[in-house]
Design a protein that fits this description.
single chain; about 290 residues; alpha/beta; Rossmann fold; formyl-coa transferase, domain 3; six-stranded parallel β-sheet
């Protein structure tokens, strides 16, 4: 395959070159979505309120990294002059990202009906907590995960599932709206609900796939974590051909199914995690050393 015909990245293709995005949202989901769109070539303007972004207070370095390459514009939308400046910005923009509760947007005359009347070609992705009648109820990732059964007290969730899934939904929704506008020449608005995003991530849990006795939750010896001599390895031999190859390479074909986990545990404990990763790579097996975040 020649270099010209080899697959490219979205960053190199820049499919959103010329698209102007205004991000009115704070914290994580909206800014993550905006950063994704920026990498696809869009020009992003981040609106920062007088009080700043809470994320900047909690983690300034991450905030700067997340907003790298964006234009930051400090506006107080409660002030008429600033709101007029914001409205002028929207007149030359293609996409608006919001994460306010609908009632708050209405108070600022930024509800969809008012926006569309002033800017008929503008598209809007409106992030809400819950789109099932509770759009104006306050919440964050923890409450959205809790509502969808993803929290197991007393342990706190290790990942921001709703926020990150919501960000990806915002990106795909934005792309769909821009495509629809190219056909109709009219902007449109779509909501993205964080509870629904969390629920999508919970589907394997609801199907008992990621419960402790489920295949993806540790119930299978072929999809599990094993202690190595100096750490841990992650084995993800989902497909039968990987399982067959693993058993053959470790001479475990004749071991009873109920004894396979213990047999694998004993074998993996005898060597370092790095050794096992190299061993697996040489045999095209899905096994890696577990790297603990610093």
């Amino acid at each position: 395959m020649s270099a010209a015909s080899s697959p490219a990245t979205l960053e190199s293709l820049r499919p959103l070159d010329g698209v102007r995005v205004v991000n009115l949202s704070l914290n994580l989901p909206g800014p993550v979505a905006a950063a994704r769109l920026l990498r696809m070539g869009a020009h992003v303007t981040q609106i920062v309120p007088p009080s700043g972004d809470p994320l900047e207070l909690y983690n300034p370095a991450f905030y700067r990294s997340l907003h790298a390459g964006q234009e930051l514009l400090r506006l107080d939308l409660k002030i008429p002059d600033d709101r007029a400046q914001f409205d002028a910005l929207l007149s030359s923009s293609d996409l608006l990202l919001t994460a306010f509760r609908p009632a708050a947007l209405d108070r600022l005359s930024l509800g969809w009906a008012a926006l569309h009347a002033r800017h008929p070609r503008l598209c809007q992705v409106a992030l809400v907590g819950d789109a099932s009648g509770a759009e104006n109820v306050p919440g964050h990732d923890l409450t959205y995960q809790a509502e969808r059964g993803l929290v197991a007290p007393p342990a706190m969730p290790l990942t921001l599932v709703a926020d990150m899934a919501g960000a990806e939904r915002m990106v795909t929704t934005a792309l769909a709206l821009l495509l629809a506008r190219a056909r109709s020449q009219q902007g449109s608005c779509a909501q993205v609900a964080l509870t629904a995003a969390a629920e999508d991530m919970a589907l394997p849990l609801y199907q008992k796939m990621t419960t402790p006795d489920g295949f993806l939750g540790g119930g299978s010896p072929f999809y599990n974590l094993y202690r190595a001599q100096d750490g841990w390895v992650a084995l993800a031999a989902l497909e039968p051909h990987f399982q067959k190859r693993l058993l053959a390479e470790l001479q475990l074909e004749n071991v009873e199914k109920t004894a396979r986990r213990d047999a694998l545990a004993a074998i993996f404990a005898a060597r370092s995690a790095a050794d096992w990763q190299l061993w697996a790579a040489q045999r095209d097996l899905p096994l890696v050393a577990v790297r603990v975040a610093a």
